[in-house]
Amino acid sequence: MSWLGRTLTRKFTLLLAGFLVLQVLQLGVGIFGVLHVGEESAAINEAGRQRMRTYRLLYLTHKALEFRSWPSEGRRIVDGVLADYDAESDRLDALAGKSAKYKKFRETIIAVRAHWDGEMKPLLLAFDPSNPQTAIATLARFEAQVPGHVRHLDEVVNLLEQDAAEDARKIAIFQAIILGLTLLLGAAGFVMARYVVSLPLRRLIEATRSIATGAYDRRVTVSSRDEIGELAGTFNRMAEAVRERNSHILGLKQYAEDIIASLPAGLVVLDESLRVHSVNRSFRELFGWKNGEDLVGRELEDILPVPDLREQARGVLASGVALHGVDAMLNGKHLLITLTGIRLAEEEEEEERRLLVIVEDVSARKHAEERLSHLAYYDTLTGLPNRALMLDRLQQAMVKADRVDRLVAVLFLDLDRFKTINDTLGHHLGDGLLKAVAERLKDCLRAGDTIARLGGDEFTVVLADVAHVDNVTRVVHKILDSFARPFRVDDRDLFTSVSIGITLYPFDVHDAEGLLKNADAAMYHAKESGRGTFRFFTADLNVRAERRLALETALRQALEKNQLSLHYQPQVDLKSGRIVGMEALARWNHPELGAVSPAEFIPIAEETGLILPIGEWALREACRQIKAWHATGFPK
């Protein structure tokens, strides 16, 4: 019954849905039969009542002809009968127009109605007492036509009865069909319940009992792909898993030993007397032992001669608390040892305790940590200390200087025109020059001094334990003299000079960052003084440095705020006395700083790169002004 679906829910849902549909159809047919038969019965009754009314009119007509006069109430009775007859005829006519099946007797209804319409007025006149002769003749004619009316009405009744019988037969046939389908659906449900659910479940129960008795090869075959089929498949897989586990259970111990043997960490199991019970292959390979059998029974210190390790092992056995992270160096290897207590049989109350020793060779990890530490505190290009390590050593030098009443000098070095070399010859040669400078600086310093690269072409030197300022000056001259020789980089001789700023602790400031800042300010003063020289920090350099920073910040906004202007200086031909050109001169008028000299802000613009947008602005402004002069009539 796969056509019903793959799941039992779907199968039973479809069967239930089919049963409900059939019941709804059965109910609908019953309701339709009741309504339709009732409608047809009402039509037959209406036609019968018309027939009775016709006979009543015939009776009244007989009485009128017999007595040659009407009873006092005769006219009223005839009017009422005719009104009822007309209303019933309208209902019959409306019923005939409802459905196509009434068309076969629609013509009969229309003929009866037409007959009545032709006779109604004369019949009403027949009851006029002022003209008895005419009334008697009309009544006699009506009496002769009444049998024809009755015959027509009988035909209508016969047609309605035949149609009702045909409809009842069709309804009975349809109900029989629905009943047959319901019985077939019930039979299908019974078959599905027995062969799709009951029998497969019975086979599963029998197979489960067989598995419970040890017949692990028992399997269940179910062809359906519903829940029962999935359950059978799951059962078969479970039985296979049980069989495999049962077949391998005797080899679990060896399997576990193989896993332990393959672990990268060395494992040693010791007994309570701290003698070797067993070792794995990794431990033997770690120390070059060929056979683990040779180690069994040896003392802990024989295989791991680590100070205090035996006492630590006894403490772990006594407390049951594992000990992690015991560092040791053996045979040039950095080892990490972990001690933890184990029990080989937990279900036994008095089993012998064991100690598991885990030995890991972390030499590679330590080397990686040292490498990371080097990357964190040393410059990757030159191998010199970086800013973080330099500040740490500076702090230590300052503490020592306070203790022994000495000086600490901080030198800030910046290579002159390094950017030109780097941009012209390429970064490869630029990096080579930086490494050559680092090596040459090392030759100029003592072993206890620190030289660091801060980034780019900036270096810092910390001279510790300085007795006199003259000692600093001698070191600085030595550095400057060393830069007089060319630097050999990739078979090329490169020349560069260095500008040096110097600050002294504790004379100038008392914190490391302040010393570095002061040395930087002194270095800029050295560059302004002609490069290739040095300057000591003085108090006014702080003011100059702050003004320089303020000018740099304000200069970045000067173009946006239209603070720059051009002044034009004429160029005169001395022979003719004529103006042959103009020189555009940039001027800066700051609202707070006042007029700033070009000699002050142009170097800042060149160093910060602002000279490019300022130059573009000056060119556009000069061209605009020339165009304006030409427009006012000045010669081109």
Summarize the structure.
This protein is α+β, with helices and mostly antiparallel strands.
Q: What report would you give on this structure?
A:
The chain is an alpha+beta fold and 636 residues long. It has helices at residues 8-67, 74-96, 106-126, 132-212, 227-248, 252-262, 281-287, 300-303, 309-319, 363-377, 387-404, 418-425, 427-444, 469-482, 512-528, 539-558, 598-608, 611-631; strands at 266-270, 276-279, 323-330, 333-343, 353-361, 407-415, 450-455, 458-466, 487-489, 492-494, 498-505, 534-536, 564-572, 579-590, 594-596. The strands form four sheets. Strands 2-1-5-4-3 form a five-stranded antiparallel sheet, with helices on both faces. A hairpin with a 6-residue loop joins strand 13 (564-572) and strand 14 (579-590). It is flat.
